[in-house]
Design brief:
The structure holds two protein chains of two kinds.
Chain A (H helix, E strand, L loop, with lengths): L1 E14 L2 E14 L3 E5 L6 H8 L7 E6 L2 E2 L5 H11 E4 L11 H11 L6 H14 L15 H13 L5 E5 L7 H18 L2 E6 L2 H4 L4 E6 L2 E7 L11
Helix pairs in contact in A: 3-4, 3-5, 4-5, 5-6
Chain B lengths: L2 H12 L1 H41 L2 E5 L7 E3 L2 E3 L13 H10 L3 E15 L7 E8 L4 H4 L3 E6 L9 E4 H11 L8 E8 L2 E15 L9 E5 H8 L12 H7 L4 H6 L5 H7 L13 H6 L5 E6 L5 H15 L3 E4 L1 H5 L1 H38 L1 H10 L3 H37 L6 H7 L10 H27 L5 H4 L2
Parallel strand pairs in B: 5-10, 7-9
Antiparallel strand pairs in B: 1-11, 1-12, 2-3, 4-5, 4-8, 4-11, 6-9, 7-10, 8-9
Helix pairs in contact in B: 1-15, 2-13, 2-15, 2-16, 2-17, 13-17, 15-17
Classes of the chains: A alpha/beta, B alpha+beta.
Chain lengths: 239, 485
């Protein structure tokens, strides 16, 4: 079942007076439960593709469909709601809120929307995520008291807290050493297998790319390879 | 505690330098506002004692001047040119009766005002004086914030002047004399009827419980002395003409007139006893008996908070009766002195406004810098699903948290400063500082209401200051989350 589809997507930026084509007519589809790597060298358009899928940027032309709905024409409010309900983000620089501790950072997205789960239910869910990412001992620590790997685990838990169908990870291992990076990818894959959340991550690390079930390779803003290595995780398990 | 409040309070703690910049401005602003308001409140209390309790009363009724730019106050007509004089209060008896019948009015008195130059017999030196021609039977019922130093107060029917200790000191300096109770002075009056001279005996010296130098210009005299000096009508029935004066007025030939030239009506009237009020006369009785013209009616109310209502009702009545008179409050009565207070108040408010504008600009810049530093955080929140109003709310709570936390700190410091200032017993060196201090020594007071007002003002400044930064924050696109380092 296709969860994301890009059709002839182009994205052009203005750098001063110079037009830069970051993405040049990209088309591909992503299946629900996929564990997909968008690979390519720096400047190949990986982050731009993730931004477009994550509805935090809009294409210059072409269409992006999330769960069958085109994102073009949605208002800022509708796009924000779509992100909150359907998409989780894992950032290269972790992007945790510095004044909140581990527990509070993970809980934070649940407090932004109206009518979130009741407090007891919320607490149990956040605690289970903390346990899932192995940070029980660190739940009252602030981000600056954690290692890079621990911060990224917090970010993974935060991305999953709203039970999104899609998780986008922009170079999630770029700021980590190779061992920690592998652990993070292993964790992401474990969650993908357990709850069939679609994971899309960008990377230029060949070892990380090898962990993906589906590889889309970019070069100069165009898809040069679209390879399925394995079937997506069991469909329907995410619900 | 809501997560946004948690974030706000922790950000205040985490971003110490930013918080201190904004906080110190808030603290400074609060100190200025609390001390300034306290000073204004103290001045207002002082004004009440200095003006309302000492010589204006709550209600002031005067005749109306049609001269453009001219104002009628207890000190006479100002801004009307040399040929103009203070208008006499028309239909005095009716206005007085109306005022006395108002249950909100506690006491009523009447007054006539004039300017004069004081000299001594055979002397060349002069001292200026303001003359309040009063009704001794009713005047003390309104203004009793004085105590007698020597001599006595004027009694009904008695001629003479009562002066303050300050007046006496000024007169002694200017006239090179050592005046005391029982001494006679000559007062030169300049009014509508031309130049007049009148001898007056100092019958009493008083001092004020809330003394000010402004009061040192005033001498209280029997009404007819001031009427004569100011050219205001004296009661005809009170002027006792001698047989020769009657003969003179009945004369039909020039010889008869010039043959009696050594005696004049005005001279006789000037020396005649003019007030024949019985000692037990009630409020206003003396004025009715003497029947002379008055410039003003002054009234004290049972409750000063009803002043505006009484003024409004009285003016409506005056208009309905077609009487060319107007009622006003102490500010109208105090005239130029009240204006000086208003000037001080305006200067203070301008200072507050300037401080507020400076505070808004600095706070705005600091908050904009804060927004710039936090674009990654804002972008992350937007990416995670925070709607724009949520981001706005976050900055609003942060701004209010900073202003209220530091506002409370400012209030504590300001309270301490008020205590220190009161302990220092700072003395007023001149009239204007006495107005500001509300007396001779500065004694500040603060109320919980002024604290609340100050906090609201500071929060208002914070609200204004946060508007532009929050607009900047709301323009931060969620894609900035990806660019955060």
């Amino acid at each position: 079942m296709t969860i994301i589809e890009l059709v002839n997507v182009k994205k052009t930026y203005l750098l001063g007076r110079v037009e830069v084509e970051a993405v040049r007519g990209v088309s591909f589809a992503i299946e629900k439960g996929d564990f997909i790597s968008i690979a390519g060298p720096s400047g190949s358009g990986k982050s731009t593709i993730l931004n477009l899928i994550g509805c935090i940027d809009t294409p210059t032309s072409g269409t992006v469909e999330i769960e069958g709905k085109p994102t073009a024409g949605l208002t800022d409010r509708e796009l924000t709601l779509l992100r909150h309900e359907s998409i989780g983000f894992i950032f290269q620089s972790f992007n945790l809120i510095p004044v909140l501790d581990v527990y509070e950072n993970i809980e934070f997205p649940l407090l932004m929307g109206a009518g979130g789960p009741p407090k007891r239910e919320r607490r149990a869910w956040v605690e289970s995520l903390i346990a899932e990412v192995g940070l029980e001992q660190w739940r009252r620590h602030k981000p600056n008291e954690l290692s890079g790997g621990q911060r990224q685990r917090v970010a993974i838990a935060r991305a999953l807290v709203t039970k999104p169908r899609i998780v986008l990870a922009d170079e999630p291992t770029a700021n980590l050493d190779s061992t920690t990076g592998e652990q993070i990818i292993t964790l992401m894959k474990k969650i993908n297998r357990e709850i069939a959340t679609t994971f899309i991550f960008s990377t230029h690390d060949a070892k990380i790319v090898d962990e993906a079930d589906h590889i889309i390779r970019l070069l100069d803003g165009q898809v040069v390879e679209n390879t399925r290595v394995a079937e997506p995780a069991a469909m329907g398990a995410a619900e | 505690m809501p997560v946004l409040l948690r974030i706000a309070l922790r950000n205040i703690r985490e971003h110490t330098s930013k918080s201190l910049i904004i906080g110190s401005l808030v603290v400074l602003g609060v100190i200025i506002i609390v001390l300034g308001n306290s000073l204004l409140d103290t001045a207002a209390q002082g004004v009440h004692r200095m003006f309302i309790d000492n010589y204006t009363g709550d209600i002031f009724i005067s005749g109306v001047t049609n001269t453009p730019g001219a104002q009628v106050s207890l000190f006479g007509l100002t801004g009307g040119g040399e040929s103009e004089s203070t208008p006499v209060l028309p239909d005095f008896d009716a206005v007085q009766a109306h005022l006395q019948a108002d249950p909100r009015v506690k006491a009523v008195t009447s007054q006539v005002t004039g300017m004069g130059m004081v000299t001594l017999e055979g002397g060349d030196n002069r001292a200026m004086t303001l003359l309040f021609g009063v009704d001794p039977a009713t005047y003390p019922g309104l203004f009793h914030d004085t105590y007698l130093v020597s001599g006595s107060y004027l009694t009904p029917g008695q001629e003479g002047i009562v002066v303050s200790r300050g007046w006496l000191k000024n007169a002694d300096e200017n006239l090179k004399a050592d005046l005391k109770v029982g001494d006679k002075v000559l007062i030169n009056g300049f009014g509508r009827a031309g130049f007049k001279i009148r001898e007056a005996t100092i019958v009493g010296v008083v001092d004020f419980n809330a003394e000010t130098e402004g009061m040192d210009l005033i001498a209280w005299a029997n009404a007819d002395t001031v009427r004569i000096l100011s050219g205001v009508d004296v009661s005809a029935e009170d002027v006792v003409l001698t047989k020769s004066q009657t003969t003179l007025l009945n004369a039909t030939s020039d010889n008869d007139i010039f043959g009696a030239a050594e005696t004049s009506v005005s001279a006789a009237a000037a020396r005649a006893p003019v007030m024949e009020t019985a000692p037990d006369a009630g409020p206003g009785a003396s004025a009715q008996k003497t029947g002379g013209s008055w410039h003003f009616l002054l009234a004290r109310l049972t409750d000063s908070r009803q002043t505006d209502a009484v003024i409004r009702d009285t003016n409506a009545w005056l208009e309905s009766q077609g009487i060319e008179a107007r009622a006003g409050g102490w500010k109208v009565a105090a005239g130029p002195f009240a204006e000086s207070i208003d000037v001080i108040r305006i200067v203070f408010y301008i200072a507050i406004l300037i401080v507020a504008i400076v505070a808004v600009i600095i706070m705005m810049n600091t908050l904009v810098i804060s927004v710039m530093e936090r674009t990654g955080e804002i972008g992350t929140m937007r990416a995670l699903g925070a709607q724009k109003p949520y981001v706005w709310l976050m900055f609003l709570i942060e701004t209010l948290a900073v202003t209220i936390v530091f506002g409370l700190v400012g209030i504590v410091i300001a309270s301490g400063l008020v205590g220190i200032v009161n302990l220092l017993h700072i003395s007023a060196s001149n009239f204007f500082t006495q107005i500001i201090f509300g007396g001779k020594v500065l004694s500040l007071s603060i109320t919980p209401l002024s604290f609340l007002n100050t906090l609201l003002m500071v929060a208002g400044v914070g609200l204004v200051a946060h508007l532009y930064p929050v607009m900047v924050a709301l323009k931060v696109p969620p894609v900035r989350a990806m660019q955060a380092e």
